[in-house]
Backbone:
């Protein structure tokens, strides 16, 4: 589906399906402008009825949403994010607790494509790539087919959005003409600038550029007449004198200043690209093979590509130890580098077993952005203000790995601006605002076998596919253990998969399987364990000693000697810290069931005392 807002409203979905009812058009436009973000019921009501909604306002609004779904063939669903079975590219009109979200592929909206091209063109211009900037900004402006929402009668909310889009268009037009002037195209610009100057007689930017184009074309007297005309118009319409910029340009023309001569573009580009710190990339290199994460990756890329005006695009990824949250975040970061060209910043939020100092994280970001140590403020709040001020004006990607708490994150996250934020969390975290949350489950047997095949090759798996499936089960489908197992087999070509499977089974009861290739998982579980309060550590160790991996609250209450409600609270807390899994609806009589991954449970049995040095 495509929605065109930059001109007459037009919706294409298996043909032209633009609604004709005035209020339906307004609802669609508002949802489209805020595509992939929640539009509150309150905002929709204000747009449709301002201060005088009918008594049946909720039902009426629901009727409009139903009519849009029916007309456009949109899927209806509860929740703000597409479900796991949803095709990430299929449009949908989702119901959320506070409003509605129109879920679209990012490039399905002409306003989104315009703003993306506009941002890219401005980046080219800042980098001195003037010809690229002119071409990209011209492509952005070609998307306009007339004034925004020209055939829609807007309410107060849409009127504001239409004015905002028009101002952005005007600003991008100025930048495109600026680029063309730098490229020496003053003769070609005279017709366009003359028309703009007449239509916008008090727009000093257009008047200044017309003056400059005329001057460079050898028509200084015409340029000076434009100044006099503009001065009279400003005095008559606004009662003001020309700005310093326009006055200085006039003075330079009177004296034939050499500053007005065109400058070679190559010199400008070379000067602006000399500093490598202008566009730092701290992303670690892409590492392990990713298998079975296509849906999660698509959801992340979709969220990071959204055109949000509410603040940064934030994605939080969490999963049990060994599930590959860091690898997935790094892969997504590399995929969206072009979307965030100003910088790609990375920080580990856990140092050994202690949370990273937020002030040190901010200092590392500022250094990467070229701020000398002597200019980095000593006070945390001053560092935060400096970083947030930079982030508010730049398209940067910020990757925070091993995040421990919401409080820690809120101390380093920018609050506004066009940034993207990827968070790999050691616990489930619920941040305020429109945050996309991605939970990584263990891999199923089929995906686990695909991962082993990618590392070992199909011939070795074909020798004993049943043993390979057993190995996936013994590794709990956790990518980090599967990679470790595959690497061990790859370095021992004389071993059969059967041999490794038997070795794991034989040594699991003694704890010897924790040594060597499995030590990364031990380290990951231990990190989650060590940052917990001592009382919660004790609970985890006692649960790992229970023979059954399934942990209904009534059983846990009996083992711990606490009320069942408190037992469920403890189970939920361990699940939030990714040491327990929750399956919803496994048993008809209970809404959820808590259980331990067998490998995590086996490691937990050896956390009753500090781990021996040879296990790390």
Residues:
């Amino acid at each position: 589906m495509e929605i065109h807002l930059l001109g007459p409203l037009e919706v294409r979905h298996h043909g032209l399906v633009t609604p004709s009812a005035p209020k339906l058009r307004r609802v669609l436009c508002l949802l489209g402008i805020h595509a992939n973000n929640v539009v509150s019921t309150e905002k929709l009501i204000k747009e449709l009825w301002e201060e005088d909604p009918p008594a049946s306002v909720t039902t009426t609004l629901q009727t409009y949403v139903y009519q849009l779904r029916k007309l456009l063939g949109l899927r209806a669903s509860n929740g703000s994010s597409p479900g796991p079975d949803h095709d990430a590219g299929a449009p949908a009109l989702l119901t959320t607790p506070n409003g509605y979200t129109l879920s679209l592929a990012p490039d399905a909206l002409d306003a989104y494509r315009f703003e993306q091209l506009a941002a890219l063109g401005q980046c080219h211009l800042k980098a001195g790539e003037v010809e690229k900037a002119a071409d990209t900004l011209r492509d952005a402006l070609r998307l306009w087919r007339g004034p925004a929402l020209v055939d829609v009668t807007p309410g107060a909310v849409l009127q504001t959005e239409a004015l905002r889009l028009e101002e952005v268009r005007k600003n991008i037009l100025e930048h495109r003409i600026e680029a063309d002037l730098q490229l020496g195209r003053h003769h070609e610009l005279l017709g366009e600038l003359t028309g703009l100057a007449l239509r916008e007689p008090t727009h000093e930017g257009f008047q200044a550029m017309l003056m400059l184009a005329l001057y460079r074309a050898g028509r200084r007297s015409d340029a000076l007449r434009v100044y006099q005309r503009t001065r009279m118009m400003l005095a008559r319409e606004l009662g003001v004198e020309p700005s310093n910029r326009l006055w200085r340009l006039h003075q330079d023309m009177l004296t034939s200043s050499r500053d007005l001569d065109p400058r070679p573009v190559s010199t400008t580009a070379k000067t602006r690209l000399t500093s490598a710190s202008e566009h730092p990339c701290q992303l670690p290199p892409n590492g392990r093979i990713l298998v079975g994460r296509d849906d999660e990756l698509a959801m992340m890329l979709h969220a990071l590509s959204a055109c949000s005006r509410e603040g940064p695009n934030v994605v939080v990824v969490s999963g049990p130890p060994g599930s590959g949250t860091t690898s997935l975040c790094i892969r997504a970061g590399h995929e969206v580098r072009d979307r965030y060209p100003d910088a790609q910043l990375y920080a580990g939020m856990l140092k050994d077993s202690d949370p990273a100092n937020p002030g040190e994280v901010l200092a590392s970001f500022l250094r990467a952005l070229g701020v000398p140590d002597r200019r980095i403020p000593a006070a945390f709040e001053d560092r935060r203000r400096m970083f947030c001020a930079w982030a508010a004006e730049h398209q940067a990607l910020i990757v925070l790995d091993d995040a421990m708490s919401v409080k820690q994150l809120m101390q380093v996250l920018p609050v506004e601006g066009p940034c993207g934020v990827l968070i790999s969390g050691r616990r489930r975290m619920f941040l305020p605002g429109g945050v996309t949350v991605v939970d990584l489950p263990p891999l199923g047997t089929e995906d686990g076998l695909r991962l082993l095949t990618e590392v070992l090759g199909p011939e070795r798996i074909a020798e004993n596919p049943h043993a390979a499936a057993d190995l996936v089960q013994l590794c709990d489908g956790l990518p980090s253990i599967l990679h470790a197992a595959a690497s061990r087999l790859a370095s021992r070509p004389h071993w059969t998969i059967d041999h490794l499977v038997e070795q794991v089974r034989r040594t699991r009861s003694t704890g010897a399987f924790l040594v060597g290739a499995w030590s990364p998982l031990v380290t990951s579980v231990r990190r989650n364990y060590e940052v917990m309060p001592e009382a919660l550590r004790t609970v985890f160790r006692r649960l790992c000693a229970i023979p059954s991996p399934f942990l209904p609250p009534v059983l846990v209450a009996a083992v711990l000697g606490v009320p069942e409600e408190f037992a469920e609270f403890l189970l939920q807390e361990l699940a939030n810290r990714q040491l327990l899994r929750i399956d919803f609806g496994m048993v008809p009589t209970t809404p959820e069931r808590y259980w331990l991954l067998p490998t995590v449970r086996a490691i937990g049995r050896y956390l009753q005392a500090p781990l021996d040095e040879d296990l790390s």
